[in-house]
Write a structure and sequence with these properties.
The complex is a heterodimer of chains A (about 160) and B (about 300). Chain A is mostly helical. Chain A has 7 helices and no strands. The N and C termini of chain B lie far apart (about 105 Å). Among the domains of chain B are: about 55 residues; about 160 residues, Rod shape-determining protein MreC, domain 2 (Thrombin, subunit H), CATH 2.40.10.350. Classes of the chains: A mainly alpha (about 160), B alpha+beta (about 300). The interface between A and B is large, with 42 and 48 residues.
């Protein structure tokens, strides 16, 4: 019973906030550095409660972002499913990594996601990228420890005391 | 021992991988269909209305900041701004009165030529939604959509020049592709001599490229580029960009010109949507009324245009 409700509202609120952060306006120079918020959240939730984030959930979230920012329907779904799959496959190992190794793993996953993005977009049409294209994963990896600790703390506070 | 363990492990893994392949295949199929046809666009358009709250939340900080600035803006600052705006308005009105007399003259000449279906340029003001889409796709969202009469392919400009064109009108919003998008091209002419070329987007916010210009062509740094009106999508004569460099291309058989877009493509506040309309330009209230009614026949429209000056 308590397992089902665990992190109930936090799950949805974090995802809603992630979607808002995805489109919130920032100064022009910061734009390329915006991390893949939904990707980070999928990584965190897949690490913590893998029964909440399956491939199906990742797919649905991806479609939501596609509709929100008007990308080709299925692009983000593809990318998030790939992220969720990597996470669920290596979850046991990633969970017990020290924080810096975890951040490096997140960097690798997000870089892989960038490669996927580039592949998808160059198949679908023209895309011009610069070196900054590869910086968003770095920002994501740097933010990872803070995001991890914050969500972990929020989740612990809201968990009903059992023992 | 090993035989009894392995199949279970294997089947679990393969089902996971199968599901992965399944989902990736669905995503890929969706992308292919979305890319190739408009079947999904209708569905997407309907669902996209649900994104409104997310945009509303995302733009809240901007709106708050603006409201705060308005609230605390000093009186002196407002007075200064008011004076400045008055001056600009005067200048603009002076320009308009000149244009008025010219268009009257134009109308008379057209009436003499018995031009039948005169097209009038109609402009509609739209606000930019202050949300960021992907920085590697040069798109904007505006707060007017198909319910406000926005149609696909309409030219979008700001006070300085062409911004782009409407790509996807939704119910109350529309997606605009900017002229700097790497997938965008627009026919232009040099204002000085009418030389025609095509300006391609480069994916950089401050650069357009005009490839395949003959070396003999008369195009120099500082030349203004206007829309040529060829292709019928854009009205002619809208400022687009200014040439900033002309050089030989790699094959050394053609020249490439680089141009800086004139519109403030980074982020303005409001843009104009241009469209051709069959009926003559009416005052806003009448125009709104006639938009409700059935379209005016071309002959009648031409007749009212011809009578208007007298």
């Amino acid at each position: 019973m308590s397992r089902v409700r665990e992190g109930g509202w936090l799950f949805w609120i974090s995802l809603a906030l992630g979607l808002v952060l995805t489109v919130v306006a920032v100064p022009e120079v910061w734009r390329p550095y915006r991390p893949f918020w939904l990707g980070l959240l999928v990584i965190w939730w897949a690490l913590e409660t893998p029964d909440r984030i399956g491939l199906g959930m990742a797919f649905t979230l991806g479609l939501t972002q596609d509709i929100l920012i008007g990308t080709l329907l299925g692009e983000h779904a593809f990318r998030l499913v790939a992220i969720a799959f990597i996470l669920l496959r290596f979850r046991a190992r990633l969970r017990f990594f020290p924080m810096w190794q975890q951040a490096l793993a997140v960097l690798a996953i997000l870089l892989n996601d960038r490669v996927l993005t580039l592949a998808i977009r160059s198949i679908a049409g023209d895309i011009a990228i610069d070196w900054q294209f590869w910086m968003a994963p770095v920002v994501g990896a740097v933010l990872w420890p803070w995001l991890f600790l914050m969500l972990d703390d929020l989740r612990r506070r809201n968990r009903p005391r059992e023992a | 021992m090993r035989n009894s363990e392995n199949p279970a492990l294997f089947s679990e893994q393969s089902s996971g991988t199968l599901r992965l392949i399944g989902y990736l295949a669905i995503a890929a199929a969706l992308m292919a269909v979305d890319h190739r046809s408009d079947v999904l666009a209708g569905i997407q358009r309907r669902i996209a209305g649900l994104a409104g709250p997310a945009y509303w939340l995302a733009t809240a900080p901007v709106r708050l900041g603006r409201a705060g600035r308005d609230a605390v803006a000093e009186r002196a600052g407002l007075v200064r701004e008011n004076a400045e705006l008055r001056k600009q308005l005067l200048l603009a009105q002076a320009g308009i009165s000149q244009i008025d007399s010219m268009s009257e003259e134009n109308n008379r000449l057209r009436a003499l030529l018995e031009a039948r279906n005169r097209l009038s340029l109609h402009a509609q003001l739209a606000g930019l939604l202050e949300v960021d889409l992907d920085p590697y796709r040069h798109r904007l969202l505006i707060d007017q959509g198909s319910e406000q009469g926005v149609r696909r392919g309409q030219a979008v400009m700001d006070a300085h020049g062409l911004v782009g064109q409407v790509l996807e009108p939704l119910a109350n919003r529309a997606e605009v592709i900017m002229i700097t998008d790497p997938g965008h091209a627009i026919p232009v002419r040099v204002a000085r001599n009418g030389l025609r070329a095509i300006a391609y987007g480069t994916g950089e916010v401050d650069r357009l490229e005009l490839p395949h210009i003959p070396f003999s062509a008369d195009i120099v740094v500082g030349d203004q580029l206007l829309t040529s009106g060829l292709g019928g999508h854009f009205p002619g004569g809208i400022p687009v960009a200014e040439i900033r460099e002309v050089r030989g291309d790699d094959s050394a058989t053609f020249a490439i010109a680089e141009a800086t877009p004139l519109a403030g493509l980074t982020r303005g506040n409001q843009v104009l949507l241009l469209s051709y309309q069959k009926e003559p330009a009416l005052p806003p209230s009448e125009a709104a009324a006639s938009a409700q009614a059935s379209p005016v026949p071309a002959e009648a429209a031409a007749a009212t245009t011809a009578e208007a000056p007298q």
